[in-house]
Design goal:
There is one protein chain. This protein is an alpha/beta fold. It has a single domain, classed as Cobalt-precorrin-4 Transmethylase, domain 1 (3-Layer(aba) Sandwich). The protein has a 6-stranded mixed beta sheet with strand order 3-2-4-1-5-6, sandwiched between helices. Strand 2, helix 2 and strand 3 form a beta-alpha-beta unit.
Length: 146
């Protein structure tokens, strides 16, 4: 069976709660999909987060190619995602935005994960899990109105 891929946004969480959620879902590797691996909270800066996760036995990898501002073409994005999913499973794609509906994890990466045949789950506010079985609806563009 193909391994489930998880996503999570750390926004609004202290790092201890974040780590507890990862441990609850038995995440082996966090793939950081932020374009810039730092944030308002120093605990989530790339090196600090890598050290925190390492201390509890969770791997950490930053994938700039999967960052929200790094979109290139679908082929390059799929290749970067395939590389990310080669990490020790289960893998969790992490970004800053807590609500997956407002993040590129949902609109851009999730459809590719599903297309690759992986079950997908989003860890959301309060630790709730949302399972995604089909790609997100395509957001309307200005062309849809004219």
């Amino acid at each position: 069976m193909t391994e489930r891929v998880w996503t999570i946004g750390y926004g609004g969480r202290d790092v201890e709660d974040f780590v507890t959620l990862l441990q609850t879902h038995k995440i082996a590797t966090v793939v950081d999909v932020r374009s810039r691996p730092h944030g308002w909270n120093p605990a989530y800066h790339k090196d600090n987060l890598a050290n925190t996760l390492d201390s509890v036995g969770i791997g950490y990898v930053w994938s700039q190619a999967l960052g929200g501002y790094e979109f290139t073409d679908k082929t390059r994005l799929k290749l970067a995602l395939k590389r990310a999913l080669l990490q020790k499973a289960p893998v969790c794609l992490m970004c800053a935005e807590e609500d997956h509906h407002k993040c590129h994890r949902y609109t851009l990466l999730a459809p590719l994960v599903i297309e690759m045949g992986h079950p997908l789950a989003h860890i959301s506010k309060g630790g709730r899990v949302y399972y995604q079985h089909k790609p997100a609806p395509k957001p309307p563009s200005l062309d849809d109105y004219f």
